[in-house]
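for the writeup, i need someone to sanity check this before i put it in the appendix. the sequnce is what the collaborator sent (i think, or maybe the updated version? ugh). structure was predicted straight from it, no edits. if anything looks off just tell me and ill rerun, i have time this weekend
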Amino acid sequence: MTPEQAVIATHGAVHDVPAVFMLHGSTYGRGAELGYEGIDFYTCGRGAPLGDVDADVVAASFVFFSPTYIRGAWERGASVESRAQAAVSFMECGYGWARRKLDTENGGVMASTDLARLAELLTVIVDTASPACAPLFGAHRAMTRPGVHDAAALVLHLLDSLRELRGGLHGAAVVANGLTPLEALSIHTPHMVPIFGWTEPAPVADPSLEGRWHAAETATNMSMARAFAVLDAAALNELVELCARLPTAST
């Protein structure tokens, strides 16, 4: 298996597993308990590894969200808890979900030994990947991780890091291919346009824009493949097999 094939085969796990905890009702509930409004916990918790920065820095890192929306959520969340604590609060929601849903000892889908091996493989990729064009990946990688004996939580943390790597690389590829973030969002996931805070009408899709989006997706896979290339073919096969066993639906 080539690195690019492994990137494509694991895309569901890298994107969807962290998304499950981000969208889970218990995460929203925890945000409300802490005092966040609506989905501000998502914005503040996800962006918090960047530090106490201006909202434009967060918007630049998120890429596809309306900067106006990001500013409102980021500034509202500043009074709830420190940025450092927001990062911890948000990730703890992910760790709790992972311990319940991934480890068979708690009713999950994978044995602890398999989770530990998956964490080992993911760690190699995360620790050697370049943070170029992916500032949120660099910030997330610098966070304190769960220990190796908390393999379910560690797998979630590492997948989230890779999700931020892909997000940054994809954002760069989208812009390099002549698309605005709103155009890219309108082509790929138009139903997310209002959820991502955009109030202006979505651009009308046309074949040229769709072609640019597919070119950006191909470029993203190629860039991610450079990070995955640190593993040999056997390890990549193992990575794909283990990731295929992870849940990718909201549960």
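The two ends are 30 Å apart (CA to CA). The mean pLDDT is 95.
thx in advance!!
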